[in-house]
Amino acid sequence: MPSRKNFELQLQTVGIECGCDKVVPHEYHPFYANHFVDYVDRPFKLLEIGVGGEGREVGGASLMLWSKVFPQAQIFGLDIYDKTVLDTDRIKTFVVDQGDPVALSVFVAEHGPFDIIIDDGSHKRSDQLTSLFTLIASVVPGGYYVLEDYFTSYWPVYDGSTLAKDYLDTPVRWLKQSIDIINRNNLLSEEIKSFLPDWGVEELHVYPGVAFLRKGLQAVRGEIPNAEFYANQVELDELRYGAYKDSFFEYIKDPMTSLKVLHEVKVRLEAEIKRIESQSAVNLVVDSQDERGS
Ligand SMILES: C[S@@+](CC[C@H](N)C(=O)[O-])C[C@H]1O[C@@H](n2cnc3c(N)ncnc32)[C@H](O)[C@@H]1O
């Protein structure tokens, strides 16, 4: 197996040869080197969503890169365009829309599970979330689910937003929520847990532009110390924040609903303040007229 540093150099050199944007301009290769060096000398299965080139060009730069640096890997590529011209004995491409959960499920039932899944497809938030939610169960224990260019969560052209970033259901939101998922065993509320799927993820590595979720081997899991402590903490949490539970659940279910509710409350409050202010102004005029009259 090469050293991490040599593998990074290899990814860089081969990536440039293949014209892969993972290296230029994105410079993700040091991050891939951190996590994928162990795969070099072994057979495994890698799936990448998004072959490249769209309908205009052949694409396939990253599939070439992976097939060169992982000589024993079986490589699968999904795209909405037919890319079978790239198929070899170790590269197989399929026309599958990553936003279609049924098509994804049919695909993984036949070809999964995978050691590594990389989402470098449409970069639209709903497609990315459909793929993540549908495919993460098909990553083997110890394997990776990689989200490339997740910063598109901040850009309207991909159906994201910077202004409304805390009120949209985006990959960035789920990367943040995966901290809660990793710590599921320490969450007190079963209702809150029910909104957080047990993906079996135990590691989250977030780099500029690319994030790695790693499935656990179910080895070590944090636990709440004992039943008495648990009961006490549940009670305290209820006492402090129980009154707001319904709004917390609404928010976690769909942060966008809260944005609408907050806006409606704000509009109603402003209208009420205006009504009170104009009523006070009328009262002041009447009072001063009364004073003058008396
Ligand atoms: C950024 S390119 C992929 C680049 C490639 N992974 C690489 O590193 O060389 C994105 C690809 O995703 C494909 N794509 C767009 N929408 C898709 C969808 N809904 N499902 C699957 N693939 C999609 C496009 O056709 C395009 O070829």
Bound molecules: S-adenosylmethionine
Cα-based radius of gyration, to the nearest Å: 26 Å
Cα distance spanning the termini: 100 Å
Q: What is the topology, as strand order, of the major beta sheet? A: 3-2-1-4-5-7-6
Q: How many structural domains can be distinguished in the coordinates? A: 2
Per DSSP, the total helix count is 10
| Largest pleated sheet | 7 strands, mixed
Q: In sequence order, what are the helices and strands, one letter per element?
A: HHEHEEHEHEHHEEHHH
Which residue ranges are poorly predicted, with pLDDT under 50 across at least 5 consecutive positions?
none
Shape: elongated
Strand content: 15-25%
CATH topology of the largest domain: Rossmann fold
- Kindly state the number of beta strands: 7
- How helix-rich are the residues, as a percent range? 40-55%
Second-tier CATH architecture of the largest domain: 3-Layer(aba) Sandwich
State the CATH superfamily name of the largest domain. Vaccinia Virus protein VP39
GO biological process, one term: methylation
EC number: 2.1.1.238
GO molecular function, one term: mycinamicin VI 2''-O-methyltransferase activity
Protein name: Mycinamicin VI 2''-O-methyltransferase
